[in-house]
Design goal:
The chain has 307 residues and is an alpha/beta fold. It has two domains: 27-183, Nitrogenase molybdenum iron protein domain (Rossmann fold), CATH 3.40.50; 186-306, Rossmann fold (3-Layer(aba) Sandwich), CATH 3.40.50.1980. It has helices spanning 3-22, 45-55, 78-86, 102-111, 142-160, 163-188, 206-212, 230-243, 257-268, 291-306, and strands at 38-42, 59-63, 89-92, 113-116, 197-202, 215-220, 247-248, 274-275. Helix 7 links the parallel strand 5 and strand 6 (215-220). The structure holds zinc ion. Zinc ion binds next to loops.
Amino acid sequence: MSVSQLFRTSALLGIFFSFFACMPEPNNGENSKKGEKLKVLVTTSIIQEAVQKILKDSADVELIIPIGADPHSYQFSPEDAIKSHNADIIIANGLHLEHRMRGLFQNTTRSKTLIYMADGVPISKLRHLDNKEIDPHIWLNVQLWKSCVSYMASRLEKDTEWTNYIQKNLDEYLIQLEHIDITAKRRLKRIPEESKYLITSHDAFGYFGNAYGIKVLGIKGLSTTGEASIKHVDSLVSLITEKKIKTIFPEFSTSTKDIKTLVEQCQENGIEIKLGQELYSISMKGPTNTYDSLILHNVNSIVKGLR
Ligand SMILES: [Zn+2]
């Protein structure tokens, strides 16, 4: 080993050991002293909840995309750059959900751990669309989200060496997620097979549909940006007529313009269509401020509208 290699290796080891020296001891749920907690920065409230379930009081988990904001169009601010600088670990969804934040993530990978939840999903289970886009809305399929959470926990184990602590919290959270999935499956069985068509503002519920045997169509594509084409709206009107679909669903934090266009088109064609309760594809607020209430709110609204 040359002198320069030796110097580089010892410098790297120095950084390595000082990194772990700074890591707080897991406190198994007891409040740790101020300043000792791991600083985790996450992009969405759904990821925030998952990290809080796994790290509990051992971490301060800060959110970048505010509740109610649309992750597809969110652009990071100078404050977000400061938060990112101060964080120990950044956790994002990936699959271009937060595509306008790419610059922030590129800076991050140079200096700290960046975890993409989507890396926990096997490629074969991702929704590859005809236009080569990959659907980022993986959290709406509870089984896929379990894989994502397990993957995130395994990465946190490597970074923190809190293996037993993280594993115990993960096991508890996976049981909770399994219960949500069982409840969702049971409730969605109330919809007759021939009525299992879900039309929403944008194409967010594909993984959800795959999980529960529901055919899903978005008025807009995977992203909320841009406008729905007239041709696509016409094809939805034909489908609504043919399959006697009773209800279509607006989404919280997504523009209602396109869904109104579809309702007007139906009315012009003499078709009666109802607007269902607003679905939550991403934001967790009010009655849907937890992951389980978000999934079950959607399930209940869909059952009510389609059965
Ligand atoms: Zn979306």
